[in-house]
Structures are given as structure tokens and as C-alpha cells.
Amino acid sequence: MIMMPREKLLKFGAQSLSDYELLAIFLRTGIKGTPVLNLSQELLCEFGSLYQMMNASHMTFCKKKGLGTTKYTQLQAVLELSKRYLKFKMTESSILTSPNLTHHYLASQFVNKDREVFLVIFLNNQNQVICNEEMFLGTYNCVEVHPREIVRKALSCNASAIILAHNHPSGFSEPSQADRDVTEQIEAACNLVDIRILDHFVIGKGEYVSFAERGWL
Fold this sequence. Notes:
By secondary structure, this protein is an alpha+beta fold. It has 10 helices and 5 strands. It has helices at 5-12, 19-27, 36-47, 50-55, 58-62, 69-92, 99-109, 147-156, 177-191, 211-214; strands spanning 117-123, 129-137, 161-167, 196-203, 208-210. A 5-stranded mixed sheet has the order 2-1-3-4-5, with helices on both faces. β3 (161-167), α9 and β4 form a beta-alpha-beta unit. α2 packs across α3, α6 runs antiparallel to α7 (99-109) and α8 (147-156) crosses α9 (177-191). The termini are far apart.
């Protein structure tokens, strides 16, 4: 006997559900001639992935059968709840003990961004989050970064360390040479005032690159 998504969630936890099963719970009902599980599979196939569905514009989203403005606003509310939950969790623990949380939090910050955004997380000497800020806004494929402004902000909030992050709207997360160059410039500026750079994340669509994991920091 096939277990329905809600029953499966209650018995095994939300992590046991596939993308289409999670979506089915969100949709709640299917449409005439299409049960909700079939509808959710069809929608994921049409959008390409759950990530692309959640990043779709209002117009694109509402064109799909079984969806509409009500579902769109509900989904946007879910996304915002996730962002706020992750932000709260980030302030509770040390960044160094929760790298996966850091990545998920950063990925949530770049949802629906169609231009490059350079974000900085400022940390205290216990590697706990003081604040984060979108410091620079660019174009589709580049963003101008000013290391001096990052240092100024870090000093103003008494940060001991920072984490850098920016998105690639193209979806391809591999850092460019310009990304590496600007990281070196920021690192040099921070070294002058004894501020550590813990990592630089480049966030693509469903993927990321960590400078620390690559051994570049």
C-alpha cells in the first residue's frame, strides 16, 4: 500500500519525502483528472526542479495548471519564513560548527536575485553572527566590490571575522579570476586590522563553491 506524503512525514520525518511529495503537501489537492501526486510530478518536470519553481516569476508561476496567485503568495511566504528561521539559527550557534546551515542560509538570501549581490556576514570572536549585509549590487554577471567599505563596516560593528558571499545568476557557481582577485584584495585589507576571512561562498543554482574548501583561504 502506497503511503501518502503526510503519513510518511509523520512516521519518518520531513527529510524522508522527495521533492514532489513535499510539493504535494504544499499543493494539498490536485485538479480535475490529475491527483495531487501526479500534478506535483508534472509541475516539477515542467519547471525543471523545485529550485526553479521557487525562483519563478509571478507570471511564469501562474501560467502553470493548478497554480495561481494564491499559491504564489503562499510559496513566497514559505520562503520568507525559511529565511527568518535560518537567520535565527545562525545567530544561535558558531559558524564553524554548522557549515551546512551557513550554506543553506546564504542560498536562501539569493533566491530570486537576477543580479549579482555581494553579501558579508560579520562575526564576533566566538564566530557567532553579529549581522549580515548586502553591501554591493551589480549587474547580471559582475559586481563592483570595495574592500575599504567592508573593513569600515566590520570595525563599526566590532567584528573579529567575516564570511563573504555572492551569487552567480547564471547558475554556474565556479569562481572567476575576478572573484579570486577581489577576495585577495579584501583579505589584504582585513589583515591590516586583524580581521579574519573565514570563507567566500559563490552561490549558483542548487550548487556552491567554498574558497575555504578549495584551500584558497
